[in-house]
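cron nightly-structures :: item 1 of 1
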Amino acid sequence: MYCTAYIWILDSSIVKGNYCTSLKMDTQSSNYQVPYKEEKMSKRLKRLLLVLNCTMLGLGNVGGPLVMRLYFLKGGKGVWISSCLETAGWPFMLLPLTISYMYRRRKEGPGTKLFFLKPPMLLASVVLGFLTGVDDILYAYGVARLPVSTSALIISTQLAFTAAFAFLLVKQKFTSFSINSVFLLTVAAVVLALHTSSDRPANESMRHYLLGFFMTLGASALYGFVLPAIELTYKRAKQTITYSLVMEMQMVMSFSATVFCTIGMLFHKDFKAIPKEASEFGLGQPTYYVVIVLNAILWQLFFMGVVGVIFSASSLLSGIIIAGLLPVTESLAVLFYHEKFQAEKGISLVLSLWGSLYYFYGEFQENKKKKKKNQTSETETV
């Protein structure tokens, strides 16, 4: 979803039995063990998949927020329309699921399972999907009112919320790295909040600007809750966690979020407003529909890219890519939309990157310790 973006997925070290939450910005690992047998894949194919997924992740992470903002800048007013587009590309997930099924069918024969989701997980996915739909509308409202460079920085605080809710829901331990990261990201948000007047677009009232600011912060907090909630769902699933299962759950969540936002569109009569909005769009009617379709595609590329990078490499890599692209999003917003980039925004950017990288470094060190501990245990057993 965000610059979403932000989503929870499993670490590729699912093959080692470790859970991980990854956001449309971050990662959070847990010690819960899940049995999983790694699929054999040639190094060349794995590299190609990694490059492909990194490309999709980069395009979606940078392009999604920029195209959504373009929609509003050129006359689009449908907040519910934009929120719906964040997950409306869910049918694209059928492609990797179909490929995965065909691959398994070739190995296992006609008796291959078509779906892995069991009723309890299906129900949990629907509930989490509706929460994601609420998050979508909060984020879309924020993008409608705030410059991209500002909303992207606010969303980066999601890591802090994820760490806090992970501590409450799945008993995730705080480390010195995560505590320092939360502190830096909180300070970054405070710096932005204290200098709101200098960043407000000329056509926005202070009331709408502040509402957009706090709704974006609310979106960050809500998705920070959703990520550990998904982890908790997997911990209580009592079934093997596979790549296909993760994709199925994400597809159900996206579908449920789309249904929620579609209902909102119906109540606000947005479907009737689309033709009029298209005819009055600043870049012309044909471009309006191109922007709408491109919006949905880019967000879906983000989701598929995150899943793919985690499967091909690690959740840590996906988090680093997303955090590393934050300056790119900021730069393109300034370049194309001529957004202001004052000193306080630069300070907030540095603090956000510092906090994110601090967190990822801490995760890297923790993973190294776990590997050494596992290797020592295996040696003693032998």
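cron nightly-structures :: done
The longest helix spans residues 343-381.
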